[in-house]
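Researcher: Go.
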Amino acid sequence: MSAADLSSVREVNFDGLVGPTHNYSGLAVGNVASMNHGGLVSNPKEGALQGLLKMKSLMDAGYAQGVLPPQQRPDIGALRDLGFSGSNGEVLARASKEAPQLLRVVCSASSMWTANAGTITPSIDAPDSRGHFTPANLQSSFHRYLEPQTTGRVLKAIFRDEQHFCHHPVLPATPAFSDEGAANHTRLCGEHGEPGVHLFVYGRQAFGDVRSGEREPKRYPARQTLEASQAVARQHGLTEAQTVFSQQHPDAIDAGVFHNDVIAVGNGPVLLYHEMAFLDEEGTLDELRTKMASPLIPVRVPLEAVSMEDAVASYLFNSQLLSNPDGTMTLVVPGECQEREAVWRTIQDYLLAGNNPISEVVVKDVKQSMRNGGGPACLRLRVVLTEAERAALSGRVLLTNALYTDLTAWVERHYRVRLAPDDLADPQLAEESLAALDELTQLLKIGPVYPFQLG
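Model: Structure:
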């Protein structure tokens, strides 16, 4: 790749649109915010507009921004697979009466958190010079296990050009290959156009002898396995010199850090992390330093500055870390960071005043997502693309002022302002959602990707 090609490489954040059935059902075990807010009334319209406003503000600031559609919900097909029969309305009514928790599962709008959509290796790092995609199987929770097939179709519809992109099958949906996608994967490098080192973080090991010093959490499940991370790396052709596999600290998982991106965020050469992020902190940093071509810039937040409770409640480390042309970085944090005195003080006195590239902190209101345990970083899937690859994208998925206007109007037409768990049985909600999604695929020009469109 020429120097001109390298300079054109950009990171594009593809944010997930909040779906019409966004609700608080408390489905995610180990996700403290999700469990604490289960049963509350949600506002799908506000959630979708908050997400779009975040995308628009980052686009206006000069960052490349993309859009990914939500899943088809309620997933009535899943209910039929589980033995419910009759018309759609009858299926919903019976599920509501006999298995209300299942109904909540098939209505989950969790696909908004596209950091879990899959793992991506940019063409710069791949042996065949193509971008590689593996949808996450998300087998650790049933409501997310329902996503990968549609996710795969969406990714193939957008990254369609086989000259530039390669798509891999979802890993076997078994506990041994439990894969949560890019929420446990970080690419570190100098500039985006330079070769990178891929940090895969896992919670447990499924096969063989457990590595020296490893242990598992006791309170909440470890969702990512070492074997899953290794399999994705093999699919993408990554070598030992390009990868680092590190175990997430089990005490952090037990404190509610269900993914690594709740306790660490990296971009370019910067790794912002809490001291409790990795079980072997020094070993992880040493291996990254050895394998990276550019110097690693670790930004460590000690436990004495930010407690685990504050880290989980504020989602400081689930912020977006964005690269600027002048070498500085912007940290996009949720509004909850301002509500925790220790967190806000750490941002001002330690991050902004520290010897690191973080020069700006931007606060965004994503409360509808945060109440279900998803901050700014959960809402985006990072894809590093060359200029030619950006030009090869299919559909109308890179955000522009016109697309933002169209999507905002679409939300205003189709979304409800109030949704309680009991409302999920309303057959009209299902009809509204299908109508909205059918129109959305036309707006985004991605073709049929949903089960109801495929027949």
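Model: The chain has a mean pLDDT of 92.
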